[in-house]
Amino acid sequence: MSDLALSTESSPRSPLTSEVERRRTFAIISHPDAGKTTLTEKLLLFGGAINLAGQVKAKGERRNTRSDWMKIERERGISVVTSVMTFEFENLVFNLLDTPGHEDFSEDTYRTLTAVDSAVMVIDAAKGIEARTRKLFEVCRLRDIPIITFINKMDRESRDTFDLLDEIEKTLALDTTPMTWPVGRGRDFLGTYDVTNGGVRLLEGGGAKTGAAQQIDISDLAGRNPNLDVGAIKDELALVSEACQPFELEAFREGHLTPVYFGSALRNFGVGDLLEGLGRFAPSPRAQESNVRKVEANEPRMSAFVFKIQANMDPNHRDRIAFARLCSGKLTRGMKAKLVRTGKNMSLTSPQFFFAQDRALADEAFAGDVVGIPNHGTLRIGDTLTEGEEITFVGVPSFAPEIVRRVRLTDAMKAKKLKEALQQMSEEGVVQVFRPRDGAPALVGVVGPLQLDVLKARLDAEYALPVEFEVSEFQLARWISSDDRKKLEAFIAANGSGVADDVDGDPVFLAKNEFYLGYTKERAEGIVFSSIKDVK
Ligand code: G4P
């Protein structure tokens, strides 16, 4: 296989278009323990980034050798950083954006999905679709992100294959096309059958390699494992080719159909097939919606949006890094870019590329790449950078928090300072801040509990503000809007103590529980309650 990309022929392309087309920017979505970290390591191995691969899963001792970022990371032994891992394979550039998943699950996990063009959904073959996967899938669906499915841990006892596909179809309303099919299961898992081309790839015989599967006749499999019922396997494969939907690139690209691969990340089996699928089917950087027009990735002028801010990556310098996804054109180190929100220019003197644990200066980057831009609080989540054009990319949303707490200041004299600090923290996307209209102390909202720990640590270290969090009478927050301004005003007036302003001054309804939220919704005619807010 010389080039995995589908679009290889056609007329001569500009160097920019060629660079853009060979990029695949993706994330892995999964429930904790499904095998995301293991799969990431194996993908990096394919790309030759072996020195990084061993560090992805930096548990225990290995964790101590990494750069000394936030104290909280060290204490918990987990990564707060959403890093970007870039590797090349078969002349393609893969940008894998890490989605924090365990205790470090946060809004950043969601926002990262706004910066990718496709996602790999990893499912534990014994467990099927789990809660977190489902949630992350819903975020992908908001933007019709194409999904490739990897059903992992086939070397262990697993659920019936048809059942698993059926579950994906029913719970996610997503059509499936198996690209490979497992032969045997659990301890008797022998390998996978290539549904498109026929032939079986055996687990034992170098499953890591890509390329044609070994052409093994199914009947010959019996000799390899007496437990296999070869007749049943043949029947099953006949049913697969008859009953399963053929792969359609367009349906996949529109987010309606997922190709499914089976394998074992731990045994490095099926990973090559998956990577090949990513290269062949996943889109190169897609056009991005802005408030004015759609921006094509191969337009010559650089544009980008910020989807994540990381503070204190180097405590000695107290720097902040904004992670920006390039939407079009080429970024060259030293160039000037316009920050559209303020109208001011900023020099991109030291944009950086991130690897698993390292960073390096980025002399040039292309649409689809993610660069880190050091700054001192100038850049916010959702900011757009251009070469002068007045456009703002849409689609870096805020998500309704799952945990709401009231902030209690131990030194009441510092209320003003706290207000400023919370404003900054919410602009950086650390937490969301809601200020009740009745003047009660501010509430903070997060989707992952670690965000609260980060907030507390940073308020203490950077602002000398020791705070505690109290359980609030409110548990849920929903943005409220209406086509009829008067109706909205009347609703706000009637629900005074349950309405707060978010960081942009947009009204948010706070509810004690789901029941109360439902009850209020039913009676609030003309008011829209939303659990997602697009950054304007
Ligand atoms: P995560 O990032 O999605 O949370 O999952 P991770 O890769 O850390 O994998 C979770 C556990 O599942 C790990 O075991 C890992 O070795 C195991 N695992 C991953 N892929 C496979 C697979 O294909 N087959 C089998 N049998 N196991 C797999 P652990 O015991 O929790 O961690 P460790 O002690 O091995 O580090």
Automatic annotation (TrEMBL):
InterPro entries linked to this entry: EF-G-like_DII (IPR053905), EFG_III/V (IPR035647), G_TR_CS (IPR031157), P-loop_NTPase (IPR027417), PrfC (IPR004548), RF3_C (IPR032090), RF3_dom_3_sf (IPR038467), RF3_GTP-bd (IPR041732)
Record flagged with keyword Phosphoprotein: no
Segments forming domain Tr-type G: 21-286
Native source organism of the sequence: Bradyrhizobium canariense
Residues binding GTP, per UniProt: 30-37, 98-102, 152-155
Entry keyword set: Cytoplasm, GTP-binding, Nucleotide-binding, Protein biosynthesis
Superkingdom, taxonomy of origin: Bacteria
PROSITE patterns: G_TR_1, G_TR_2
One GO MF term attached to the UniProt entry: translation release factor activity, codon nonspecific
Cellular-component GO terms for this entry: cytosol
PANTHER family: PEPTIDE CHAIN RELEASE FACTOR RF3 (PTHR43556:SF2)
CDD domains per the UniProt record, alphabetical: RF3
Protein's name in the database: Peptide chain release factor 3
Pfam family, one: EF-G_D2
Subcellular location, record wording: Cytoplasm
BP-aspect Gene Ontology terms: regulation of translational termination
Protein family according to the UniProt entry: Belongs to the TRAFAC class translation factor GTPase superfamily. Classic translation factor GTPase family. PrfC subfamily.
Coiled-coil blocks: none
Job description of the protein: Increases the formation of ribosomal termination complexes and stimulates activities of RF-1 and RF-2. It binds guanine nucleotides and has strong preference for UGA stop codons. It may interact directly with the ribosome. The stimulation of RF-1 and RF-2 is significantly reduced by GTP and GDP, but not by GMP.
